[in-house]
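Minutes, project check-in

Agenda point 3 was the complex the collaborators sent over. CS summarized: two entities, 433 residues total, and the question is how they sit relative to each other. Sequences were read into the notes so everyone works from the same version.
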Amino acid sequence: MIGVGKIKQYSNVLDKPLSKGKQEVSLSAFAFLFSELVQYNQTQVDNIAELERRLEDAGYAVGARVLELLCHRDKGNRRETRLLGILSFVHSTVWKVLFGKVADSLEKGTEHEDEYMISEKELLVNRFISIPKDMGTFNCGAFVAGIVRGVLDSAGFPAVVTAHFVPVEGQQRPRTTILIKFAEEVLLTFNPFIIANCILILDSPSAKGITHSLGFMS
Amino acid sequence: MAPVGPRSGDAIFANVERVNAELFTLTYGATVRQLLTDLEEVEEVNKQLDQMGYNMGIRLIDEFLAKSNVSRCVDFKETAEVTAKVTNPELWAAVAKVVTASELSFRPDNASVQVGFKMFLGVTASVTNWDVDGTCCSIILEDNPLVDFVELPDTCQGLYYCNILSGVIRGALEMVSMKTEVTWIRDVLRGDDAYELQVKLVKQLPEEYPYKDDE
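CS then shared the predicted structure for the full assembly.
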């Protein structure tokens, strides 16, 4: 029958049309794959810090590619060049594409100028993982921290990104906070008077972008 | 209770929780890259991917059987319910032998393979090329979410990028008492037009039971 049958073959992967990003796989397939990734890395390391670093490196590669993909496909080849813009991009667009929802909140640290936090009640990657007590503060969210670091680094905002568990009252499982600490050179390009004394909190699902109340105490 | 018929892959896929395939693709790519950096030899990477797939398959089969209501297993469950009332272990072993031989014969038929690939990867697979004995078949995948955006460089030409799939099938079938060998016949990353896996039954394993006959 004409029209039925083989998919057109492309000799070069770059000639293939980019998919719309709507294809899905089951959560369990992803969960199994992620558990195998963690288990493989456990056999390659001696301590927790090394394991977190390896997971972060794996996530870094994912983040760099996600940035390229999203900027090309969804943003019409435009990339954010401002700090708040890129943070909002990570918090909303990247999270929505990868995890199906925007992150629960984006906050600026009060103690240090260069710290921001993205919080999530239950990270997708941690859903089926329980950490034994002897592993202390290890968090498989290091993979997601790596993704965020990959996006920020490739966008020109070098940062140190880590994942932490924050116990919440009334909730059995602690929520996860991704702590982003920007390198010094990132902050030197911004007017310190505008950023100072400002705490931004964006709650989903009403995250409409950064409210421009910079410099004003509400 | 009458056995419920097998559910279609689409129905199950619509009911399970899903994630973006790109996250899955990129995570798999990161895994393969890590393996290549650590192990350096493509043969070692192929083996490791197969082992990882095997570990996934032995767990995945439980979910598959639970969600898909494949008919032969429902029959076995029914048989088990009836014989649970009988405490004679010899009778149990005898019934098990009969059921194993007749019901769980090697025919991972078109329906169950399609259901499996649909419910986990969201893609349509087909089973063809049965040989005369009924011990060997080919699974063909047109569409594969693992290989979006992937191109094999010249240094990795011996790599079976999707080898994790062969491990998954091998692991899953081993848990239903079929020891198999899975090899790649066609691979799009190497220039063919589709993905083809050959599944060959090596041995039918007898079911093992935790209690001895003489207790």
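Noted in discussion: The longest helix of chain B spans residues 42-68.
Follow-up: revisit at the next meeting once the mutant set is ready.
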